[in-house]
Specification:
Elements: H1 2-8, H2 19-29, H3 33-54, H4 57-67, H5 69-77
Helix pairs in contact: 3-4, 3-5, 4-5
Transmembrane segments: 30-54, 60-77
Keywords: Membrane, Transmembrane, Transmembrane helix
Length: 95
């Protein structure tokens, strides 16, 4: 913890009027933004897949974007609206 505090306050005068913002930006530089972006994208894609499977595509995307993997369970807990399409069956084939 002391190491993080040292990194956050590196080069900051605590008495300066902009000390808060300098510490804030120092902390934001420590966040792994690329990893957070890719994990969020993965969560939304899986949520979209689960939502499509349950007939609730938009709900799957929204819940996954807001809650991550917890949103997946919300989509799975709701009943299906329409059955998913069967593979290999084209529309209008009369079968």
């Amino acid at each position: 913890m002391n190491e993080w505090l040292d990194r956050a306050t590196a080069g900051v005068d605590p008495a300066a009027p902009d000390a808060f913002w300098r510490i804030f930006f120092n902390l934001m530089r420590l966040v792994p933004w690329a990893a957070l972006f890719w994990w969020s994208l993965l969560f939304v894609l899986v949520g979209a897949l689960l939502g499509w499977w349950r007939g609730r595509l938009l709900e799957g995307i929204v819940w996954a974007a807001l809650l991550g993997p917890i949103g997946w369970f919300l989509v799975l807990a709701r009943p299906r609206r329409v059955p998913p399409p069967l593979p290999g069956r084209g529309r209008g084939t009369g079968v």
